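quick one before i forget lol
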Amino acid sequence: MNNISEKNSEGTILIVDDQLSNLKILATLLKDNNYKVKKAIDGESALISIETDSPDLILLDIKMPELNGYEVCERLKEHPKTKDIPVIFI
């Protein structure tokens, strides 16, 4: 029996990736396991999304145009509101 599927929601995860196929695969996998999923296709839209609704976890692509994953993470860690959000680089 899968304990994850028995719960209402595991939390909110923001996926940030410029590859739409990666976004779709990860979002489907996480939604199937009862996570609320938010998506962003670039670093700037991720930062805007986080300002309005902070996720519990961020899955962050490293290689993206404009703001790469490292730069996004650096900005997040500079602010008290977002510095404690866990980030996993993908």
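fyi The longest helix spans residues 20-32.
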